[in-house]
Amino acid sequence: MLYLVIVEFFTDLLPRVINVIVLLSPTWGVLFLVIIFWNMWLAYVRADFLSKQEYILLEIELPKEQFKSPLAMELVLNTLNQTGGDGNFIDKYMKGKVRPWFSLELVSIEGNFHFFIWTRKNFVDLIESQIYSQYPQSKVQEVEDYTNFLRYSKESFSLWGCEFKLTKADPYPIKTYIDYGLDKDPKEEQKIDPITPTIEFLGSVGQKEYIWIQILIRANKKEKTKKGSWFKKTDWRGEAEDLINDLMKRDPKTKASVSEKHPNLTKEENDVISAIQNAIAKPGFDCGIRGIYLAESDKFKPINITGLTGTFKQYSSANLNGIVPTGGLTIFNYPWQDFKEIRQNKVRKELFDSYRRRSYFHPPYKKKAFVLSSEELATIFHFPGQVVQTPTFKRIESNRSEPPMNLPI
Questions:
Q1: How open is the CA angle 59-63-68, to the nearest 5 degrees?
Q2: 65, 95, 167, 171: which is deepest, by most CB within 10 A?
């Protein structure tokens, strides 16, 4: 019986299907060409727009006495949640405008630790004013891009790098500064600041060693296709609401329980739902994290790879979310995966180039982003207090003058 069905398919049905495809080829062929042209056009106009922007790297130096909690940084980051910038239809699809993104960078240059923020030039005054409003004794200055001082080549440098991802769906939050009690502004000797291990690690490398970590961010918008839909778009909050409905086993429209047979939620499930609800109450950022360890060949220490991949371990929570390494050179585990390291050398060049370009949300190095709330983001990038005693963490004297009066509010 099965034999007859197969024979009938190949002798009767298959030719008919092929004839239909041939007859419709002008239609789907034109549609296919239109899609290709449209994508090429978008790539061109966006690349043209981005090439005309001017970018600035700001370094932030902290005073010797800095006692503010990461909440201060959260307020600064809220101003970077710029949902505009791509304008109307003509601006977005004819002129190639895209909303701005920023790079928050934790950098070690031969053991000397630095905080940097990379931005479009037109946002410099805004960023300076917001930092001075929360950290009036700090110093913000424009500096030359540190990535310009090195030119990677496999003959003179050894390089290892990766990107990072979340262990669960975006709405699940990571462990934040509130979980560490830093929102209560405890005394310096009682603080447990999760950024301390990162700064200590970055400050521990020696001469001719460099560790660069960038956290690329932009405002999250309704751009992801809603699950179970063809055209409807959703954002991070919409995904969170669907997740909560699923966890609570309730109908998404009526919010009522689908069945009385489901038992009551456990305390852990209630805690997870509460954590998600608290996270989405704050602004959300599309994020991409990339890390590079670079050293002259005779100075390269493989142990620092372990340090880099474990940079964000302290933010992981068993029942919520975490940040783990992915991509880059993590995909090569065995010698037979890559003959004479041909693929690895290609990945090294791409990692170095993508880092320098701060490319993540658009070509040439477009990647899949995840979402963090402003609270989560301020946890992994904030200015620590006296609890960090790293000798190579440069601080300035506290008696600096007030910020310039002409900065915008």
A1: 100
A2: 171
β-pairing, 224-225 with 112-120? unpaired
pLDDT at residue 383 is higher than 80: yes
Burial class from Cβ neighbours inside 10 Å (0-12, 13-18, 19+) for residue 221 reads middle
Which pTM does this prediction carry?
Answer: 0.85
DSSP 8-class letter at 393: B
For the chain, the first-to-last Cα distance in angstroms comes to 80
Strands (E), 29-156: 55-63, 102-109, 112-120, 139-143
Parallel, antiparallel or unpaired: strands 102-109 and 112-120: antiparallel
Whether the per-residue pLDDT at 164 is higher than 90: the answer is yes
Residue 230 to residue 64: CA distance in whole angstroms: 55
Per-residue pLDDT reduced to its tens digit, 109-150: 998 999 999 999 999 999 999 999 999 988 999 999 999 988
Q: For residue 82, what are the CA distances in angstroms to 59, 218, 271, 320, 349?
A: 21, 7, 31, 27, 31
